[in-house]
Specification:
heterodimer, A: alpha+beta, Arc Repressor Mutant, subunit A, three-stranded antiparallel beta sheet, 4 helices, 3 strands, B: mainly alpha, 10 helices, 71% helix, 1% strand, elongated
């Protein structure tokens, strides 16, 4: 049984789903997509990337030097796409259940829930 | 463009892991007018960022430090900082400790075998040697005749972590076990406790040391484990056989001979298996 995906993992895979990217762009992408709520630390990012590489969900896609700085690019694998799809379906199902009950509650209490 | 200048692209693939920032920028001609003081400043700043990764194991640093420092520098520049933030420093310290002692990593098979033998010897030692409920003597701990039970428990847990793929935790526990068993050995000899003897300390610490620092050569792996296993065999088989002889009870003696033969056969099997593993490495 697949376990719940941790938030840094979710955002790393989500950013990489748009294409190969390097560490700094992954941090910026996660911050942007989460409306500034997720501020990945570099240590957290690399711990996640090392683990995801070990699990075969992402892979290193080359090193490049830009302005004298090494940029390591990563890309999502097919296994990573499958894992992210599974997580998205799980989140959607949870959200649907919660929304159904909230809508029923708003009908009883008159609370305006969109 | 001056004569002799090379017009390098701003982005290019490299085989080397890292280029010093100041040097490569000068190479690109971007910062040609940068003063030496600025270059020196950049170098010191880069060194400061590299220092933040000292918590990580050397293998991790070799693999990732150039890329990680580049991200830290990009972040610092975006925030207008010249030094890493306190949050990043703390996160890297914690990340390094986690990577060094907790992160999942498989131990070499020889090290796992050493941990298994150490755990087996620990159980044997506590059941047949150190178990002495009711004995009142200096150094006794609960029903055990000496406190090396603490080290033995660490070795058993170390095996569990190693099997679960937590090699670093297994090595940490083994290292702690070595410290405990050596300290208990010294106290035992100083205050005349009921063990452990120096040979017992050598077996516990030897196997654990092997797990913490596994030999790189298969030949050394084989001979180290073979020597420690022989020591275990001598310390377990000989007293059992001797007790049977003293008791002079044919039935007990026969049972003990069978048991001893079983232990020796098991040891031979392990050594043979290790030779196979050693050749395969």
């Amino acid at each position: 049984m697949q376990t719940e995906m941790r938030e840094p993992t979710f955002w790393v895979l989500t950013v990489l789903a748009a294409g190969r990217n390097h560490g700094y762009a992954l941090i910026a992408g996660a911050r942007e997509l989460s409306d500034g709520r997720v501020q990945l630390k570099v240590a957290t990012l690399y711990a996640a990337l090392e683990r995801l590489s070990g699990e075969g969900l992402v892979m290193v896609d080359g090193d490049e030097v830009v302005d004298g700085r090494l940029r390591r690019y990563f890309r999502i694998t097919n296994a990573g796409i499958t894992a992210l799809t599974f997580e998205v379906n799980r989140l959607e199902m949870n959200a649907r259940q919660a929304r159904t009950r909230l809508q029923a509650l708003s009908g009883v209490t008159g609370l305006g829930i969109a | 463009m001056n004569p002799g200048d090379v017009d390098l692209p701003r982005t290019f693939s490299v085989a080397v892991p890292f280029l010093p920032v100041a040097a490569s920028r000068s190479m690109n001609g971007i910062l040609r007018d940068e003063s030496l003081a600025d270059v020196r400043h950049d170098q010191l700043r880069d060194a400061d960022f590299h220092k933040m990764l000292r918590w990580y194991p050397s293998a991790w640093r070799e693999r990732n430090s150039a890329a990680v420092v580049s991200i830290l520098l990009d972040q610092a520049e975006a925030l207008g900082r010249d030094r890493p933030g306190a949050g990043d420093r703390l996160a890297l310290a914690l990340g390094g400790i986690w990577e060094r002692f907790v992160a999942p990593v498989r131990l070499p098979r020889g090290a796992v075998v050493a941990l298994a033998l150490n755990a087996a010897f620990s159980v044997f030692y506590f059941v047949f040697i150190a178990w002495g409920p009711g004995i009142e003597f200096a150094g006794t701990v609960g029903p055990f005749t000496n406190p090396s039970v603490v080290a033995g428990t660490l070795f058993v847990f170390a095996l569990g972590f190693a099997v679960a793929g937590r090699g670093r935790t297994a090595r940490l526990l083994s290292g702690l076990g070595i410290a405990v068993v050596v300290a208990v050995g010294i106290l035992s000899q100083t205050f005349t406790w009921l063990g452990p003897s120096w040979s017992t300390v050598a077996i516990f610490a030897g196997f654990a040391f092997f797990a913490v620092f596994p030999p790189q050569s298969p030949r050394r792996t084989f001979w180290t484990i073979a020597a420690l296993s022989s020591l275990v065999a001598v310390l377990t088989v000989v007293p059992i056989a001797w007790a049977g002889l003293i008791a002079y009870r044919p039935a007990i003696l026969a049972a003990e001979i069978v048991l001893s033969a079983g232990i020796v056969a098991f040891g031979v099997r392990i050594i043979t298996r290790l030779r196979t593993i050693g050749e395969a490495v």
